[in-house]
Design goal:
- The structure holds 2 protein chains of 2 kinds.
- Chain A has helices at residues 3-27, 31-35, 74-84; strands spanning 38-46, 70-72, 97-109, 115-128, 131-132, 136-146, 153-162.
- Chain A has a single domain (3-44, 76-162), classed as Nuclear Transport Factor 2, Chain: A (Roll).
- Chain A has 3 helices and 7 strands.
- In chain A, strand 4 and strand 5 form a beta hairpin.
- By secondary structure, chain A is of the alpha+beta class.
- The N and C termini of chain A lie far apart (36 Å).
- Chain B contains 14 helices and 21 strands.
- The longest helix of chain B is centred in the C-terminal third of the chain and has 18 residues, at 364-381.
- The chains are: A alpha+beta, B alpha+beta.
- At the A-B interface, strand 2 and helix 3 of A face strand 13, helix 8, helix 11 and helix 12 of B.
- Chain A: Keywords: Dioxygenase, Oxidoreductase.
Chain lengths: 176, 435
């Protein structure tokens, strides 16, 4: 195997490992540890999808400046994590069980040496008491930045493009 | 259905003298069918905002309860609403949520309608229908009444319904606090849509009455927003030191509104990050004062309200939403963020961030509201005994009265004046009474 192929495989492998580890933290509700893997300038957003005809297909997501199921930065993510730890956060006490399947991971180089665009597909489910909520599916477009963390990267951007024009499952109480 | 409807004994569903509602009203399919027939087919329902469809051919698709409708801007500037349904086999005419089109072609056999509903033509009109089909009789069903209040578009299936202004009545004074504070009016950002497993009435009633829940339901959100080191928020939390606040109920029309009045501190800038507070507290506030007066500028920042049956607004969080029934056990929440059209882009962006963080489907406050109402719905609808339970809507019963500054029947903020008004009008309509 030549060096370039070898490097590409190592990069793909290490980025997939990061995704599995950080997603595992969200599944295990170790939100503070997850937050520590995000950069101070993190952008975390979930645009709103609409149903449009082919002619307007490029307008299917409303502009993020005007609408979003999430519009987060480090500060608001920190407040979310603080709330999730509060026993009086009724919607998550007793806690729901989040499950996040990540697949179809594609890695793209960017103009910045140590930053990579990582595109993946996901399915998010939430189970609480005896009830499972309808799954949410979509595509994550992440920017990972190389860093001295246990997993070699930090999350600098997460754009979550969901498949649903109307979010199923009574909203989202945790993070995807 | 007719017999089952008579069996409903509508008078027993809500006891307005004593403030008692029967748990079954939230899940009984016969109650739901009657609501569709006697409330949603006779009341003014919110369709959208004029600014969403500024140009000829612009359209949006929304629902009036479960009925899909296309709301279009016509060439003469007027707005029409038609049932999104082909008269041939009932197919949807338009699948997009919004766009621009002056006509809609059914994708099944190709019947074509103009955006006002007129049937324009179809394939094989000559050899198939022998030119005998009277197109004037087979247009898409029109919403017979469409009226506008300060940019908000409402429709009503009842051709004989009183004017929108009469149906709004005194609630317009409260509603205009959202709409009329700046020259050029508002624009609506969205819609954001999400589904909750509960009956539509839980949140419609709640927004017209309930400040009682905030300190408990939202305790963790309020604590998380406190500065570092501050003590946890108390369960007896009040917005103002003197624990004042008012609640408005209008039993003849079903509307309700409430707020911690006066919330002089921060009501209008509660959730938006910089630079929104500086803008809203500066020149925008002076313009608002000139347009709305002191009370609606300084004292009503926390106003939350419901326009009967299913339109609700929250002033501090700057949202407008519609509780769209999707059967007795599911609601689609259609949620818009309210921006003044003239605001600078960075202020609009900050407000969208603030509202997303607090009250969108993932919002810190919305999370606990959604879970609570879904659990209320389960509690009141799962179980034969559970469905018969009389539920308590008595807070402040008998303590309401007139007020010099605020129109309507006024009570303390911690009351259920608005809820009793909601269920009174709901019951009147179910019995076939007052419009």
């Amino acid at each position: 195997m030549d060096t370039r192929t070898n490097d590409a495989l190592r990069l793909q492998w290490s980025i997939e490992q990061f995704l599995y580890e950080e997603t595992g933290l969200l599944e295990e509700r170790r939100f503070a540890e997850w937050l520590a893997l995000t950069t101070d300038d993190i952008v975390y957003a979930m645009p709103v999808r609409t149903t449009r005809t082919l002619r307007d297909f490029d307008k299917r997501f409303l502009p993020i400046e005007r609408a979003g199921h999430f519009r987060e930065d480090k500060q608001t993510l920190s407040i979310r994590v603080k709330k999730l730890a509060d026993p009086k956060s009724w919607s998550e006490n007793p806690p729901s069980v989040p499950r996040i399947f990540v697949t179809n991971v594609r890695v793209r180089e960017t103009e910045i040496d140590d930053e990579f665009l990582v595109i993946s597909s996901f399915m998010f489910t939430r189970t609480r008491m005896e009830q499972s909520y309808a799954p949410i599916t979509g595509r994550r477009e992440d920017i990972l930045r190389r860093a001295e963390t246990p997993y070699g990267f930090m999350l600098a951007r997460r754009m979550i493009y969901i498949d649903h024009a109307a979010l199923p499952g009574s909203g989202i109480n945790t993070l995807i | 259905m007719a017999n089952r409807t008579q069996d409903l004994n509508i008078i027993d569903l809500f006891d307005r003298e004593n403030g008692i509602v029967k748990a079954s009203i939230y899940s009984d399919p016969d109650v739901y069918k009657l609501e569709m027939e006697r409330i949603f087919s006779r009341s003014w329902l919110f369709l959208g905002h004029e600014g969403q469809i500024p140009k000829f051919g612009d359209f949006l698709v929304t629902t009036m309860a479960e009925d899909s409708v296309i709301v279009s801007r016509q060439g003469d500037g007027t707005i029409t609403a038609i049932l999104n349904q082909c008269r041939h086999r009932g197919n949807r005419l338009c699948l997009a949520d919004m766009g621009n089109s002056k006509s809609f072609r059914c994708t099944y056999h190709g019947w074509v309608y103009n955006s006002a509903g007129g049937l324009v033509g179809m394939p094989h009109e000559t050899d198939g229908y022998h030119n005998k089909l009277n197109k004037a009789e087979w247009g898409a069903i029109r919403v017979p009444r469409v009226e506008i209040h300060k940019g908000l578009i409402f429709g009503n299936w009842d051709a004989e319904a009183p004017a929108l202004s009469a149906a709004l009545g005194d609630v317009a004074w409260y509603l205009d606090a959202f709409l009329d504070g700046a020259e050029g009016g508002i624009e609506l950002s969205g819609p954001h849509r999400h589904h909750v497993k509960c009956n539509w009435k839980w949140q419609a009633e709640q927004h017209g009455t309930d400040f009682y829940h905030a300190a408990i339901s939202h305790n963790s959100a309020l604590t998380a927003l406190n500065p570092p080191g501050a003590p946890p928020t108390s369960f007896e939390y009040t917005q103002t030191p003197d624990e004042t606040g008012y609640q408005f109920g209008m039993p003849e029309l079903g509307h309700g509104a409430a707020g911690w009045f006066p919330a002089r501190n921060d009501g209008l800038v509660r959730f938006a990050p910089a630079p929104a507070p500086a803008y809203l507290g500066g020149p925008a506030r002076e313009e608002m004062r000139a347009r709305l007066g002191d009370i609606r500028t300084d004292e009503m920042g926390s106003l939350v309200m419901t326009v009967f049956p299913n339109l609700s607004l929250n002033r501090a969080a700057r949202y407008l939403r519609v509780w769209q029934p999707r059967g007795p056990n599911r609601t689609e929440v259609v949620h818009y963020i309210i921006l003044d059209k003239k605001m600078p882009e960075e202020v609009k962006d900050a407000i969208v961030r603030g509202t997303s963080f607090s009250f969108n489907a993932s919002g810190l406050f919305e999370q606990d509201d959604s879970e609570n109402v879904a659990l209320c719905h389960r509690g009141a609808s799962e179980g034969h005994i559970s469905r018969q339970t009389p539920l308590n809507v008595q807070m402040g019963l008998g303590f309401g009265g007139p007020h010099p500054d605020f129109p309507g029947q006024i009570n303390h903020v911690y009351a259920e004046e608005g809820a009793r008004a909601f269920y009174s009008h709901w019951q009147d309509l179910l019995m076939g009474g007052a419009k």
